Amino acid sequence: MTVHIGAKPGEIAETVLLPGDPYRAKWAAETFLDDAVCVNEVRGMLGYTGTWRGNRVTIHGTGMGMPSLSIYVNELIQDYGAKTLIRIGSCGAMQENINIRDVIIAMSATYTTNMNKPLFRDASFAPCADWSLLTAAVEAAEKRKAPVHVGNIFSSDVFYSESPEMDAELERHNVLGVEMESAELYTLAARYDVRALAVLTVSDHLKTHEALPSDQRERSFGDMVEIALEAAFS
Ligand code: HPA
Question: How many helices (H) and strands (E) are present in the chain, helices listed first?
């Protein structure tokens, strides 16, 4: 047990899928894993361990935003020995050629957070994905004929942006989409020498203001879970 995770030693798999929403963790575990067992309920942040095609997997919520993800990912890596961590989440599209339900695989993640400022000082650290997971996820997405975009994303500290000029510059520099977690996941993976990737489904569009209706979110989320599982065990 750690401060925030109630699982016993050995109850967390080396491969962990990380949705922001704990109820998505429950749904994904019940839908895609065999013999899924709930291993964490502390603060309602649900985590499940089961198997997928015979491989042990944990699906654990992170909450929203980098400070919350950072707590769980630190404990999953340092206390439970997680080695492959894949975020499965939603994002807002920032480019015209990207549509609702498309998949974005984050090669790198831009950020404004100061969480790691004391470490990097004047350097602008560039958090990036694990190459083996990235290429395997692209292959899995293409095999499923899921429309996929690979590139830089923005891990924002705010959902409700008050910085239209910064958003416009990020769009001009071909940032594909915005979410709130991946830059910290990639930074921790680099620090502890483990593999990380973020596979994201576009749930809303910053330019067209379209949004995925809630009854269609589950189906689109399912594609992303399968892409992440195939990438993890390819
Ligand atoms: N902004 C930030 N995070 C998000 C968004 C968004 O538009 N959509 C899904 N996660």
Answer: 7, 9
**Tokens 């609702």 belong to residue:** 100
How many whole angstroms from 93 Cα to the centroid of ligand 1? 8
Pocket test for ligand 1, best of 62, 64, 88, 90 (most atoms within 8 A of CB): 90
What count of Cα atoms within 13 Å lies in the side-chain half-sphere of residue 132?
A: 7
Of 66, 100, 102, 159, which is best to mutate to test ligand 1, by the most ligand atoms within 8 angstroms of its C-beta?
159
Domain 15-232 homologous superfamily, CATH? Nucleoside phosphorylase domain (3.40.50.1580)
Give me the mean pLDDT over the 110-127 stretch: 93
pTM of the model: 0.97
Give the model's confidence band at 217: pLDDT under 50 very low, under 70 low, under 90 confident, else very high: confident
Domain ranges of the chain: 15-232
Range list of β-strands (E), 94-166: 103-111, 148-155
